[in-house]
Fold:
Amino acid sequence: MTSPVRILLLSAALFGAALPASGQADDSEEEATLVFNFRRASIQSFLGYLSREAGFSFIEEAAVQGDITAVANKPLTPSEALEVLRAWLLPKERTLLRTGKVVRILTLEEAKRRGLPVRVGSDPAQIDDDEELVTQVMPLKYVQAREVKEQLEGLLSAQGRLMIENTSNALVVTDTSASIRRFAQVLAALDKAVSSELTVKVYRLKNADADEVSKVVSDLFSGESTPG
Structure:
């Protein structure tokens, strides 16, 4: 029997916060107005605060309980305040899925089943440093994905997952965005280190025959040169 879904009935409309036409919040237009000081307060009181002050409606598909200590002396945007909540939920195997002003609280496994945001790219500078659970497709230039998979799996968090896409030589990582960012930093250094070893230089010969020089050089590196 499934557990009942708990809905905190404090909607965005009730507090005059209109949703964009797309249903998604535009973070660039959010104002930093939230200042709070919760010390060993119940998580329900914190959810109530975010509902009243930021207009969020929370749907608890996975129940949460316990106390939270969260202090923001400088104003935060609503999205930044949600990241505080997400960080508190993560050790409890919970996370958030947000659509506009509606925020669902559910287990990590359920979030993975429903489909997470999918992003593409290996540049650490382009990966957010937050606790949102995402899937990142990371194409590789020089190293082979299958060769580095086992060595890099230890960089992920406990809930992280790493797969390889052989066709495009890419790693597919599911984890928090912050963990993927750290993962990408190591991966970028490794990919760059390998590429630096693949340097090709062209030398023009003035007097020697290119074919003969090629044979001599090949013999030197193979250790099969004959005494002359």
Summary: The first strand starts at residue 6 and ends at 7. Helices lie at 43-54, 78-89, 108-114, 145-152, 177-196, 210-222.
